[in-house]
Amino acid sequence: MLIVGPVSSLYDFLTFWVLLSVFHASERLFHAGWFVESLATQVLVVFVIRTAGNPLKSRPSPMLTVTALAVVSSGVVLPWTPLAGPLGFEPLPATFLLFLAVATATYLLGVQWVKAWLLPKFTPAGVGQG
C-alpha cells in the first residue's frame, strides 16, 4: 500500500487538474467528478488486488462482480438524480465520462503493473500466482 496509495493519489491529482483546468469546474461539478472518479477507482481496484496473479485469469465471484458494478454504476448516475442537489453535485459532461473511463482503466493497469513488479520481491517463487 506504500506504493499503490501514492498511485491512487496521483490519479486524484490528475482528476483535480482535469476538472479545474480542462472543465473549469464549479464547486458542484468538482464534487461530482471527484466523487465518481474516487468511487470508480477504489471499488474497481478490488478486482486487481484480490489476487496475486493476473486478475483476468482469476475470476471473481458473480456476487462481487455484480455488487461492484452496481455500486460504480449508481455513483456514475447519481449526479443526474434528485439526490444530486443535496449532495452538492451537478451532472457530469460526457467528455468527463470519457476521461473517467480512460483514467480508471490506466489506474487499474498501473496498479496491476506495480503489483506484478513488487510481489516477486516479497513472496517465494510460485506462491499466489494463480
Structural overview:
The chain has helices spanning 4-22, 27-44, 46-49, 62-77, 84-87, 94-122. With 130 residues, the chain is an all-alpha fold. It has one domain (4-120). The longest helix is centred in the C-terminal third of the chain and has 29 residues, at 94-122. The mean pLDDT is 90.
Low-confidence region ranges: none
What is the CA-CA span between the terminal residues?
Answer: 21 Å
| Average pLDDT figure | 90
What is the H-and-E element order? HHHHHH
Give the count of helical stretches: 6
**Form type:** globular
Beta-sheet strand percentage? under 5%
Number of domains: 1
| Strand-pairing-aware structural class | mainly alpha
Largest sheet: none
Q: Could you give the count of β-strands?
A: 0
The gist of it:
By secondary structure, the protein is mainly alpha-helical. It is 69% helix and 0% strand. It has one domain.
How does the SSE layout of this entry go?
Layout (H helix, E strand, L loop, with lengths): L3 H19 L4 H18 L1 H4 L12 H16 L6 H4 L6 H29 L8
Helix pairs in contact: 1-2, 1-6, 2-4, 2-6
Features:
mainly alpha, 69% helix, globular, 130 residues
